[in-house]
Every structure is written in C-alpha cells, then in structure tokens.
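During the no-cost extension, the postdoctoral fellow (Dr. R.K.) reprocessed legacy sequence entries with the updated structure-token encoder. One reprocessed record is reproduced below for audit purposes.
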Amino acid sequence: MIIETVMDRWKAAVDAHDPEGVAANFTEDAIFQGLRPYSVGRAAVAAYYDSQPIGLRAEYKVLETRRLADDLVLGYLNVDFSFIDRPTLNVHLSVLVKRDLIAHYQVSRLG
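Re-encoded structure tokens follow.
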C-alpha cells in the first residue's frame, strides 16, 4: 500500500534524525502542519524536523485510507512520537499522498 511505503520512508528518516531525508518525502509545495503554525515546502519541513530533539522516534498505525484519484490517497494514522527524556506524545495524522510524496500533512492532538 502506498501510504505504508511513504510513511515507512518518513519514519526511517525521523528515527535517524535526518531532516533532509524527512523533507524528501514531501512535495516541493507541501502544506505541513505539525504542532506549530503551518508552513509550506520541503525547506520548512526540514527546518521543523531539524528542531526536534535527538532520539525522537515515530511509531505509526494506519487507521483509514481512501483513494481519492488514481494518483492521490488520503491516509489517517495514529502516531506515537517517543523521546529520550519525556513521555510519548500520541497524535493523529492526516496525510494526502500524491504519487509517492506527501502533499499535505496535518497533526492533531485529541483529548
């Protein structure tokens, strides 16, 4: 499944603290909403992940997917971000994957 393929690459780069590697999984004009105000583009994605602490790791589970067009898939995931020095952060993540790159990424904290 394309969502797992893309998110496995994303996870590997997050776990390796490779901000440029994370950004390579996004389209040039991706809309990115982490837990700070949104940004646009690969450079913004790289800057966001460069600011994350060493030792950050991501574990995800795909909850739902929908194929919206031949080259566009919506994914809804549960993600646990673990840290060396603080509790795990549980979030929900929506992604739009166009071909094999993330075009839209939005994190939300529920509860």
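The first strand starts at residue 26 and ends at 33. Strands lie at 26-33, 39-40, 57-69, 72-82, 89-98, 101-108. The remaining legacy entries will be reprocessed before the final report is submitted.
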